[in-house]
Amino acid sequence: MAEGNDYVNELTDQEDNFSRWYTDVVRKAKLADYTPVRGSMVIRPYGYALWENMQALLDRRFKETGHVNAYFPLLVPESLLQKEAEHVEGFAPEVAWVTHAGQNKLEERYCIRPTSEAIIGDIYSKWIDSWRDLPVLINQWANVMRWEKVTRLFLRTAEFLWQEGHTVHATEAEAEEETLKMLGVYQDFIETELAVPVWAGRKTEKEKFAGALRTYSVEALMRDGKALQAGTSHNLGQHFAKVFDITFQDRDGVRKHAWQTSWGVSTRLIGALIMAHGDDNGLMLPPNVAPIQVVVVPIWRKEEDKAAVLEMVDQVVGLLRPVCRIQADTDDNNTPGWKYNEYEMKGVPLRLEIGPRDVQNQSVVLVRRLDRKKEFVPVAEIAARVPELLKEVQQALFQRALDFREQNTHAVKTWAEFTEIFPLREVGQEAPEGSKRGFVWANWCGETSCEQAVQDTTKATIRCMPQDRPAPDGPCVRCGGEGKERVLFAKAY
Amino acid sequence: MAEGNDYVNELTDQEDNFSRWYTDVVRKAKLADYTPVRGSMVIRPYGYALWENMQALLDRRFKETGHVNAYFPLLVPESLLQKEAEHVEGFAPEVAWVTHAGQNKLEERYCIRPTSEAIIGDIYSKWIDSWRDLPVLINQWANVMRWEKVTRLFLRTAEFLWQEGHTVHATEAEAEEETLKMLGVYQDFIETELAVPVWAGRKTEKEKFAGALRTYSVEALMRDGKALQAGTSHNLGQHFAKVFDITFQDRDGVRKHAWQTSWGVSTRLIGALIMAHGDDNGLMLPPNVAPIQVVVVPIWRKEEDKAAVLEMVDQVVGLLRPVCRIQADTDDNNTPGWKYNEYEMKGVPLRLEIGPRDVQNQSVVLVRRLDRKKEFVPVAEIAARVPELLKEVQQALFQRALDFREQNTHAVKTWAEFTEIFPLREVGQEAPEGSKRGFVWANWCGETSCEQAVQDTTKATIRCMPQDRPAPDGPCVRCGGEGKERVLFAKAY
User: Fold this and answer.
1) Is the pLDDT of residue B5 over 80?
2) Whose CB among A367, A447, B65, B201 lies 3.0–4.6 Å from B466's, allowing a Cys bridge?
3) % of chain B exceeding 70 in pLDDT
4) Residue B288 lies inside a defined structural domain of this protein
5) How far is A39 from chain B (nearest CA, A)?
6) Which residues pair with A144 in a beta bridge?
7) Is the interface score ipTM higher than 0.85?
């Protein structure tokens, strides 16, 4: 709040240093900030309002697909975390341990949940007894903690907010259906509401969730050409059911282990949003989730114009409040130019300007954040025009991101082509400015060793194997062995 | 889910053992349950749906009074918690300490927030610089942890969910105005939506929040005659501003310490709801927050009637879904009688019965949970009648609770009268069945020593000093010294 008037100009350009641009934007737009707790952020009101809008749109989708919310404990007893071998191996190195309460040392340590499969598995084992109790379709909105070494606001923080769905089914087929259904919910939410196109597909064995049978993810492309995993959906098989003894009496009278899924998205999605749409002027928020969809900026030079302009501001706000999230900035201390910069930084999709001439003409100027395209709209038409324009902007943002992804997706056949896009690390090569980058379709032999070799030499990883992927059309890009899958590579966050 | 058919009959009567009745109801209605984490509960979907409804109605009130939401870190560095002396003394004995991350011992311990004044105070000190930055009106919805020795579902658990408002103001008067405004918001919410009448007033010095200048609370009466503190609002004065260095440049150019407030309600409110309205058949939920407002129970004996009854169920649900939260229970495995018990246990305000005769008459039977009062309503009128009836039930529940409170509020002048209601502990006396109990108005000298003596001998405490309390009309009920305040005593949760 103490920043100077021209702080917007101090924003780093994306081309100069994308990572610094990102942190600058998060802080200058007041989405989030650092705290004295190592690796933990504070989500400021503007960022949290964005999250609330995202939550509402996601939660509605969860409920429409038959899910209900619940709340499970923050702490997980160490003995429960250790039950599933892969799970504990995956998470134990990065959990925070509670060892004392007040002055007393605890008999057993608890970790702060890094995810809740273990505690929920134990609780479900007590709730489930018969096929009549299935399916269990529960989601929780919660905070989780993973003590990451390197953190970045929204993208990777020690504590973050997320939702985690945990479902239980009678058959493997139902569990797989649920896993894919929720993957589809994520894709629909991210593409429709966040205007970010994603690839939805299966993760490789190497990249799957610790303890899962199969993991699926949605993968988005950021404007620096790096991919970001935006959500995951896991078919847990019977792994947790077996160690937590989640069994049910089936219709045939036989007691069986249940089948489970889990799926989650987090405040990381805010990072995805920022990096998929933002530009050198700041954020660019999709109207469907923007806390402020329209900002009204009054303009006057002569004091005698002020009253009439402000009166029209009130009138316009009154007309538009029922149809959009609107805010008028009538603060005398800042110039209109300062406000233009401020709300561009904050990514507000539409700016509505009202000056003395607009009062005379009974029309307003609407300016799109996306491309600063202006239009003059009579006051009588704004309540109809603004919602249309918001829809147009939402659509245009998605199209822009899709175009960007298409321009930055390539199919390669050979290792030479592959390393032209993802230069070999050992030679310290960097991709030239404006070079190919982004997603790369390539054939793969299916071996983890090849996948690992690609990562070690180029930092590129297999992001996912989309459901509707093409068949392999040649040998493995790395080893030259038989190509068994056509997969999507990228460097990733 | 594995309970037998007649489990409802096994509910303990309130008169026999209120505390056991309470726990029975919470578990049988599937609001919450125990977990393997000491003192932590799981809030089950039905209980969480209730909490979501309460959250929505509260959040709307916070936003209408100008507040925004944000999210602050879960962990509080030990050095920050220790800055405010009274605060650390109040909370340090009951906090959970995080000492390790993965394999590594942390340089500084963190506690899991028992409340967030300390971490928020530190963060606010960085955000606030000028009078232009004030007021700061932020709320957060969060989990907190206090390692209580004795726990009870919803009422006192190690972890609980709550909201905590943290505001900053330029003057003492503004802070006091905010403190009282939010106390009023709580009173309005609890009385209007939860149908529970409360006394709103100031806490004594002894009972105030650790670190506050003044604490106010809302106090409700449970059906066993004990009071429950349902929410608190604190004027923090400059206590935290001084230790966390929250200063601002005022309009007069002078740098000053800011004035703060904090206020909160928690999932404890669910406990209040249960104990203020429930009866020997289970929960009784106010329609405004009930997850299911109307349950439809189809009734048929002959198989040939089934199709017509179910068709009418569909029709009725279609008519009512737009005007209320409705659910039809068409499960063949349970009898109508079992369902009556089940939804009475769950406190669903209205039951709608449809049998073959109702199909013929094109009318339905509506039964109020409150008093089982029945009415026959033509199908053509239900979409108008049901919302009316829900309003009537909401109002009747409030009136019933208010009547109960009035019957159980007494004014006393002497210690003899006082101890007739709150028998002396040392003689092991128990109040006879049906005796006076509840709130007691009495005069008090204002001395903490007297307040403590009353508590030690009778367990009764001063709940609050309501804003519109009568003037003292006699000597202190305990010591006989000058009566300086007329206050409300009760035994409390």
Assistant:
1) no
2) B201
3) 96
4) no
5) 10
6) A160
7) yes
Based on the fold, state whether residues A172 and A245 are members of the same structural domain: yes
Which residue type occupies A437? R
Q: List the CATH number of the domain containing B271.
A: 3.30.930.10
> Residues A299, A273: one domain?
no
Q: Which residues of A touch B42 (CB under 8 A)?
A: 70-73, 123
Asked if A313 and A368 sit in the same domain, the reply is yes
Amino acid (1-letter code) at residue B126: K
Same domain (yes/no): A202, A311: no
CA dihedral of residues B130, B133, B139, B142 (deg, nearest 10): -60
* Same domain membership, residue A428 and residue A384: no
The torsion defined by the Cα of B339, B345, B347 and B350, in degrees rounded to 10, comes to 30
Domain match, B431 and B467 both: yes
Extract the tokens encoding A151.
Answer: 């953190």
- CA-nearest residue to A249 within chain B is B2
Flag residues of chain A having pLDDT under 70.
1-9, 427-436
The token pair that represents B225 in the structure block: 């005659």
Of the candidates B1, B110, B147, which has its C-beta nearest A37's C-beta? B110
CB B488 within 8 A of CB B441: yes
On whether residue B99 sits in a domain, the answer given is no
Integer Cα distance of B112 and B174 in angstroms: 31
Among A31, A41, A42, A91, most B C-beta atoms within 10 A, so best to mutate, is A42
Chain A residues within 8 A of B4 when measuring between CB atoms: none
- Of the residues B277, B305, B320, which one is the last residue of a structural domain? B277
Q: Which domain holds residue A387?
A: 294-392
Enumerate the residues of chain B whose CB falls inside 8 A of the CB of residue A157: none
Kindly tell me the number of DSSP H helices and DSSP E strands found in chain B: 14, 23
Question: Mean of the per-residue pLDDT values for chain B?
Answer: 94
pLDDT band (50, 70, 90) for residue B435? low
Task: State pLDDT tens for residues A379-390.
Answer: 999 999 999 999
| Cβ <8 Å between A102 and B123 | no
Distance, in Å, from the CA atom of A295 to the CA atom of A462, rounded to the nearest integer, reads 42
Q: How confident is the model at residue B85 (pLDDT cuts 50, 70, 90)?
A: confident
Tens digits of residue pLDDT in B52-72 = 999 999 999 999 999 999 999
Residues of chain B with C-beta less than 8 angstroms from the C-beta of A112: 74, 98, 112
Choose, out of B5, B27, B34, B37, the residue to mutate when testing the contact with A (most A CBs < 10 Å).
Answer: B37
> Has residue B9 got a pLDDT over 70?
no
B452 Cβ contact partners less than 8 Å away, ≥ 6 residues apart: B206
**Is A214 within a domain?**
yes
Query: Which region among B25-39, B80-94, B416-430 has the lowest average model confidence (pLDDT)?
Result: B416-430
Residue A259 within a domain: yes
- Identify all chain B residues contacting A126, using CB atoms and an 8 Å cutoff: 33
The count of structural domains within chain A is 3
**Quick one: B162 and B236 in the same domain?**
yes
Q: pLDDT for A399-457, tens place per residue?
A: 999 999 999 999 999 999 999 999 887 765 555 555 568 999 999 999 999 999 999 99
Identify which of A74, A99, A143 has the shortest CB distance to residue B100: A99
